[in-house]
């Protein structure tokens, strides 16, 4: 088989656009790249500037190049009897067909393969499938991205890499892939078929690397075979070893395994503080800034405590990212430096794990909602099973629709067959649970912590000692979990999985299964299922009417991003229900009645079939349908609780986005104050809880967090320790904080013309002085929009790119990556950029904070909390709004300095920090940067002077 890997550069993406460069790499029968052809093409018109910016190809490059007809005379003979390959091949193929047509050739009629499909299937865990990213991940030389010959060669090498991986798969996996595409008339299916035939002729099959079960190849053996970290009859490795001796050992090992290891005072203090809290059964609030190394600061004493006393420690993080960082970076390092074997297990919410029974069922039945995308996702997952040891969805790079696919195959308690499932010993969720049960330290997340509390502690292994990282999020997560949160699709997805149409859904599948069984009751059962269909449709119609009615009650918020979930939002008060609330209540009642009817008929049917009919395939469906019915019962009760609006201690509100209107509706019912519940569930019950974050104190005091989290009683009893660690960075030399004292102020979330003009002018001048490398944090999307276009214009001639969250497409991580890769750029961000964004080194030199990050006072939860404080004769602004804003402000400030060699400037444009009575709380809470205020016109020269005086650190000297 001979492959021709094709790539075009063009003047645009439309059919009327022209080719300006072609690249072709020929892969011969022996899988060697025998030829790379490249040529510019004269399009007969000038190249748009943005294409020149992307590709580097100028009008000068193409002015003496051959015309399309001449180039095609060279290209066409090379396309004879080849399989055409491309990266996103549809784009190049359309331009090829158009060029063939324009030059009088017959259309290309050979086979076509897309490297995107191969990459997704063969490398399901790659975080991006962009050619540049993939080339660097594979260590391929791709020296001129967006130049056709370089792209064609890189694509050819990527394709060969995929072929190598494909041919190395176990035969059973290749057969599964081939079967998957067998009913599709696709070139990918034809190609997989060929690989299968080849592999079947191979006399040597490697059967050692994988476990084979029910026609799937898996990486992992049965979890029941897993050994414990230490043998039970072995002596305790810490018997007679003091904490100081253990730490001396660890530090010696750190020095010998990490050449750049140096002890940090703050980390040493944290290790000692955590150890003291664990050994004295006390709670600890500990603020540890960036660079402290706080993961080791709590993991080292936790492991000592757990192994020495046989008392497991649970660690909880807010983000999955931090869990992954602990798994990928910190735990492997600890394995090298801790002088005895231990186990630290990651245990996530159940929905993160693949249910092998559901997956097998889905692919065997070809139960695909969007066949083209679902086939690729299923193929990805069949290959992933040969690689994964955890079955955790975070390892998969799923397409947009892949999330819907995952929902149908994720593990969940309602549809688990437990020990009677043939997959039980292979089950990823039960593996994770078993590992957690035998672990010294269990790492979970805040969500799972609260799900466990609600499930009467049936989910997590029991624990008396708890470390809460990213603890400034604990109260917010507690509210969401101890209250209720539901979306429009919560009900729709459940209904669709039960019944999409007469062929698709669990009920129609069961109907077909029962009809085939020939059971004497199958006609009666089929008739009951037929009665359920119209009821499901009726629920869907009523739900749409109710959602439309509720969306119609929502006013638009002035400071939100278009498409943001909270763009439309409204608080609902028990004492003042909206005008047409009784109409909504009537629709909810109708829903309640119909859902009850479905549940009554459905439960009775499931019970009957289960008792009378013995068949694994039907059993599996009955389990899933029973689970879906339980979900429906939960949704029915949640909705009733919400519509009743009768709990004064709960704050109710609705949110939606303008983009998807009623389909983006979200329902919230959150306790106004969770401090009492946190106290009762955690601080009264557990022997020791350590809460840590970079931002826990306000004005060097922990009082705000003590109040919010329900720790006051522990403090009064002397059971609460607090510690604010010194920063490992020298902020006074590393950061200059500038306040332009004559800057105009703003009322509300939108700036007037004078404010916007001043801001754009100041940001533009500063960006030129810092050569881009600037992050601007806004509190309102409207204001970001006001600044975006004029700033872009002001910086156009300086070759500084402006990127805007919500304006330029891409997720937060994509925008951050673009910002880091660009030579000179300014990134404008709102809410999600204030924390969790890590841009170390020279990519970020200047951070501008446009306004102090106060939450909008009309946010439902803030409003309700303020009312409660007023009833207690407290000042809501000073007790709640200011501390919340200070913590967010500290998070924003923390974006600038990520390492000891970072040096930069923070500009605060909000003069309230020096003019208002509460401004000092913000400045006093920062870790000691150099602070100066001055008239606006003196700011840029001062910034330039500061940046030139950057102390050259040891790290930079060795770089040069």
From TrEMBL:
A GO term for molecular function: 3'-5' exonuclease activity
Q: Where does ATP bind?
A: 288-295
- List, alphabetically, the Pfam families matched: Helicase_C_2 (PF13307), RNase_T (PF00929)
Swiss-Prot/TrEMBL keywords:
ATP-binding, Exonuclease, Helicase, Hydrolase, Nuclease, Nucleotide-binding
Q: Where is this motif: DEAH box?
A: 469-472
Which SUPFAM superfamilies does the record cross-reference, listed alphabetically?
A: P-loop containing nucleoside triphosphate hydrolases, Ribonuclease H-like
This chain's function reads: 3'-5' exonuclease.
Q: Which PANTHER family match?
A: DNA REPAIR DEAD HELICASE RAD3/XP-D SUBFAMILY MEMBER, REGULATOR OF TELOMERE ELONGATION HELICASE 1
* Family stated for the protein in its record: Belongs to the helicase family. DinG subfamily. Type 2 sub-subfamily.
Name of the protein described by the UniProt record: 3'-5' exonuclease DinG
Organism, scientific name = Paenibacillus polymyxa (strain SC2)
Query: Which gene name does the record give?
Result: dinG3
């Amino acid at each position: 088989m001979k492959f021709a890997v094709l790539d075009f550069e063009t003047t645009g993406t439309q059919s009327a656009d022209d080719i300006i460069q072609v690249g072709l790499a020929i892969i011969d029968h022996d899988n060697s790249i025998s030829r790379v052809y490249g040529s510019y093409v004269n399009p007969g018109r000038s190249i748009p500037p943005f294409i020149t910016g992307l590709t580097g190809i100028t009008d000068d490059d193409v002015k003496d190049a051959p015309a399309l007809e001449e180039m095609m005379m060279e290209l066409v003979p090379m396309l004879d009897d080849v399989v055409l390959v491309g990266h996103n091949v549809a784009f190049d193929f359309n331009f090829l067909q158009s060029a063939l047509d324009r030059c009088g050739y017959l259309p290309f009629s050979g086979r076509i393969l897309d490297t995107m499909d191969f990459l997704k299937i063969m490398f399901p865990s790659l975080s991006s499938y962009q050619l540049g990213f993939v080339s660097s991940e594979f260590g391929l030389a791709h020296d001129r991205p967006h130049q056709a010959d370089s792209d064609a060669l890189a694509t050819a090498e990527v394709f060969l890499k995929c072929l190598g991986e494909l041919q190395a798969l176990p035969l059973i996996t290749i057969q599964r892939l081939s079967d998957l595409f067998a009913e599709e008339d696709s070139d990918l299916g034809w190609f997989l078929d060929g690989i299968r035939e080849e592999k079947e002729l191979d006399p040597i099959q490697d059967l050692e690397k994988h476990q084979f079960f029910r026609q799937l190849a898996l990486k992992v053996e049965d979890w029941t075979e897993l050994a414990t970290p230490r043998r039970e009859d072995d002596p305790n490795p810490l018997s007679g070893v003091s904490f100081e001796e253990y730490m001396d050992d660890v530090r010696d090992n750190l020095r010998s395994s990490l050449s750049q290891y140096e002890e940090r005072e703050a980390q040493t203090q944290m290790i000692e503080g955590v150890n003291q809290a664990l050994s004295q059964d006390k709670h600890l609030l500990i603020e540890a800034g960036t660079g402290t190394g706080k993961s080791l600061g709590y993991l080292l004493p936790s492991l000592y405590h757990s192994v020495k006393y046989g008392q497991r420690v649970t660690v909880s993080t807010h983000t999955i990212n931090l869990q992954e960082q602990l798994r990928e970076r910190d735990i492997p390092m600890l394995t090298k430096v801790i002088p005895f074997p231990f186990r630290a297990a990651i245990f996530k919410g159940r929905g993160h794990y693949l249910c092998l029974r559901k997956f097998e069922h889905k692919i065997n039945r070809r139960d695909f909602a969007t066949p083209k995308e679902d086939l690729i996702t299923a193929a990805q997952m069949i290959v992933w099973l040969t690689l994964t040891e955890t079955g955790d969805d975070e390892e998969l790079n799923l397409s947009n629709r892949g999330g819907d696919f995952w929902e149908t195959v994720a593990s969940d308690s309602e549809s688990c067959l437990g020990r009677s499932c043939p997959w039980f010993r292979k089950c990823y969720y039960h593996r994770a649970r078993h590992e957690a049960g035998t672990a010294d330290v269990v790492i979970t997340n805040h969500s799972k912590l609260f799900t466990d509390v609600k499930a009467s502690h049936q989910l997590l292994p029991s624990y008396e000692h708890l470390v809460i990282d990213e603890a400034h999020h604990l109260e917010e997560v507690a509210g969401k979990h101890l209250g209720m949160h539901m979306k429009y699709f919560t009900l729709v997805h459940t209904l669709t999985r039960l019944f999409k149409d007469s062929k698709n859904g669990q009920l129609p599948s069961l109907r077909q299964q029962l009809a085939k069984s020939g059971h004497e009751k199958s006609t009666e059962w089929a008739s009951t299922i037929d009665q359920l269909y119209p009821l499901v449709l009726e629920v869907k119609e009523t739900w749409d009417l109710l959602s439309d009615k509720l969306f119609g009650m929502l006013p638009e918020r002035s400071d939100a991003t278009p498409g943001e979930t909270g763009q439309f939002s409204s608080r609902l008060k028990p004492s003042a229900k909206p005008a047409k609330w009784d109409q909504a209540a009537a629709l909810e009642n109708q829903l309640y009645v119909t859902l009850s009817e479905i549940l009554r008929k459905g439960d009775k049917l499931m019970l009957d079939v289960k008792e009378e009919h013995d068949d694994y395939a039907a059993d599996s469906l009955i389990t899933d349908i029973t689970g879906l019915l339980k979900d429906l019962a939960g949704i029915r009760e949640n909705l009733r609780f919400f519509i009743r609006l009768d709990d004064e201690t709960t704050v109710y509100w609705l949110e939606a986005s303008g983009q998807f209107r009623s389909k983006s509706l979200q329902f919230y019912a959150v306790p106004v104050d969770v401090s009492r519940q946190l106290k009762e569930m955690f601080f009264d019950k557990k022997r020791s809880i350590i809460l840590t974050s970079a931002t826990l104190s306000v004005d060097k005091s922990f009082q705000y967090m003590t109040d919010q989290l329900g720790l006051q009683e522990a403090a009064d009893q002397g059971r609460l320790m607090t510690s604010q660690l010194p920063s490992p960075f020298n902020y006074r030399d590393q950061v200059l904080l500038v306040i332009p004292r004559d800057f105009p102020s703003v009322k509300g979330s939108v700036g007037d013309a004078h404010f916007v003009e001043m801001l754009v002018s100041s940001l533009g001048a500063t960006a030129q002085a810092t050569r881009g490398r600037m992050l601007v944090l806004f509190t309102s999307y409207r204001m970001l929009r006001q600044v975006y276009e004029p700033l872009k214009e002001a910086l156009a001639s300086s070759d500084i790119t402006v990127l805007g969250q919500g304006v330029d497409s891409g997720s937060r991580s994509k925008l951050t990556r673009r910002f880091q890769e660009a030579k000179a750029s300014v990134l404008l961000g709102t809410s999600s950029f204030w924390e969790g964004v890590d841009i170390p080194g020279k990519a970020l030199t200047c951070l501008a904070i446009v306004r102090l990050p106060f939450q909008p006072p009309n946010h439902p939860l803030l409003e309700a909390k303020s009312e409660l404080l007023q009833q207690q004769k407290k000042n809501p602004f000073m007790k709640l709004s200011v501390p919340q804003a200070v913590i967010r402000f500290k998070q924003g400030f923390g974006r600038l300095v990520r390492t000891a060699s970072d040096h930069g400037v923070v500009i605060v444009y909000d003069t309230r920090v020096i003019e208002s009575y509460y401004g000092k709380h913000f400045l006093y809470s920062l870790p000691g940067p150099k602070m100066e205020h001055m008239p606006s016109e003196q700011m840029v020269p001062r910034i330039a002077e500061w940046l030139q005086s950057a102390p050259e650190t040891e790290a930079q000297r060795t770089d040069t």
